[in-house]
Amino acid sequence: MNVMTPEIWVFFSVALIAIAFLYASVGHGGASGYIALMAAFSFPVDYIKPTALILNIFISGISFWYFKKHNHFKWKLFYPFAIASMPAAFLGGYITIDAQLYKIILAIFLLIAIFRILFSSKETRENKTDFKIPLALVIGFLIGLFSGMIGIGGGIILSPIIILLGWGNMKEAAAVSALFIFANSIAAIVGYSFNHTIEMDSFKLIPIALVGGFFGAVYGSHKIPNTVLKYILAFVLLIACFKLTLL
Hints:
Elements: H1 6-25, H2 31-40, H3 45-69, H4 75-94, H5 100-119, H6 122-126, H7 133-150, H8 155-164, H9 170-195, H10 206-222, H11 226-246
Helix pairs in contact: 1-3, 1-10, 2-3, 2-11, 3-9, 3-10, 4-7, 4-9, 5-8, 5-11, 7-9, 8-9
């Protein structure tokens, strides 16, 4: 782990808690935010990817627990994505490639999603369309593969897709994305471990991130209305865009 002075460590910890809170409140694990934060503080490259995936597992897990507790989880909306994405995430975690092109493409998609989420009408966002399983399988596979390669859980792609296609509301998308990230992150870290060594230092940030993740999950699942979650999700996606394009 990177060596920091006590003052810098406190600043880093507060930033980590804030990121975990924001991401957990919309059903995300926070990998893209953790990657950006650790890169900004000059953490070793070999440390960043496994640590982000491990934090993803814990934060998305607690987020899913609270969103499901408050009846926002829809199994039929989840399983087609999971069936296709988990083996793809395992493969993506095993593959080591230069994923810069994928990051740029993903950043462009996220910018489009931000625009659509913020500026589409309320009626458009709330009108649900028929859920198409074949399309969900294709989407799940692609998300799993790309997410495994660049070290994220995939929910940051999945949740805006669910909303934009009219397959679920903000909280339903958050609940599905949380479990999706949890499953994919486990698959990706297992795939990563086949080709790399995971140091124990990668587990040391878990207690800090869990502070933000707990409060984010509690407030996002039943205290924050969908209209506010819309802006939080847009902000989270914007953070991911900066991370993908600048780091």
